[in-house]
From TrEMBL:
Keywords tagged on the record: Coiled coil, DNA-binding
Pfam family, one: MerR_1
Protein name as it appears in the record: MerR family transcriptional regulator
Keyword DNA-binding in record: yes
Lineage, broadest ranks: Bacteria, Bacillati, Actinomycetota, Actinomycetes, Micromonosporales
Domain spans labelled HTH merR-type: 1-68
PANTHER family: MERR FAMILY REGULATORY PROTEIN (PTHR30204:SF97), REDOX-CYCLING DRUG-SENSING TRANSCRIPTIONAL ACTIVATOR SOXR (PTHR30204)
């Protein structure tokens, strides 16, 4: 199938498919005229890649996880689980930072509100 067909079937843009290929996440076969052609398996692969992006993973991390899909083994599965655990820890730390930032903003808003009250009381 051609790139537009793959994109439509997987529910992504043609630009996304090209990006996945540039990042080494997806491989196509080129026709003599240079057109990209994909097999039926690439629809599932693109859908899987999309799920990984939705989970907050970068293309670099996704590339690290794909051996678990391409050559399933206990070793690759363990490596993928370790990598996903690292990413989860990174996301949790980021969430904690965002909560601290929000709390600091809440405090500033409270101070500003109290100060505003003194301005209207005059």
């Amino acid at each position: 199938m051609r790139i537009g067909d793959l994109a439509a079937r997987a529910g992504v843009s043609v630009r996304s498919v090209r990006y996945y290929e540039e990042q080494g996440l997806l491989v196509s076969v080129r026709s003599p005229s240079g057109q990209r052609h994909y097999t039926e398996q690439e629809v599932e692969r693109v859908t899987f890649i999309q799920r990984l992006y939705t989970a907050g993973l970068s293309s670099r991390t996704i590339a690290e996880l794909l051996p678990c899909v391409d050559t399933p083994s206990l070793e690759n599965s363990d490596a993928a689980m370790d990598r996903m655990s690292e990413e989860r820890d990174r996301l949790s730390a980021h969430i904690d930072d965002l909560i601290r930032t929000r709390d600091a903003l809440d405090h500033l808003m409270s101070v500003a509100s109290a100060h505003r009250t003194t301005l209207t009381a005059k």
